[in-house]
Specification:
Blueprint lengths: L9 H7 L8 H16 L25 H11 L22 E8 L10 E8 L2 E9 L7 H18 L2 H7 L9 E3 L3 H8 L8 H5 L1
Parallel strand pairs: 1-4
Antiparallel strand pairs: 1-2, 2-3
Amino acid sequence: MCELGRMDILVETSILSQYLARPRICHLVQAISIFEYLSKYDNYWMVMDPSDYNIDWMPIKDEPSPEETARIMQQMHPDAIEEEPHNKPSIPLGKSVNINAFVDADHAGNKVTRRSHTDIIIYCNRSPILWFSKRQNTVEISTYSSEIVALKITIEMVVVEGLRYKLKMFGVGLKGPARVFCDNMVVVLNSSFSESTLKKKNCRVA
């Protein structure tokens, strides 16, 4: 159901699936509650909106523009070149789109293992195309660390696993780099400014 588009039960289903090995009565009760919710709200619609997702960029004090930030990052990492499909369509087969990814992490959400939970939704313009909810593999001691791990997973989904590559192969034009949104300002600043230093070793590796 989650894969077919019922994102409203994605987090609950992901959390409940952690107890498949040794379920208890309370887990059965929660599973029944999910199905009761589905039976009550069975007329669920997923809106696919092709319109562009415009953003009013509000710069922070002394913050460079996104174009300037991209230029600085390219100078720091000259070998970081995006792979282009050699046999992609010569011209886009339709209107170009923006990739917009929204990411969040529930720090130490699991009261037993103290692991955080990552939640991601990726849009093409205003249409959701990919959603993800999973417990993190490590125990992070701060909200900052759990958000960095979640951001790493998002980048892997967009770049490493080839979402941009696949869209180009389909003939879908892309408007600039993917835009990632999170609600932790420290994470935004540390990942946006080239002079920012990540002091924690696991965050640097991520």
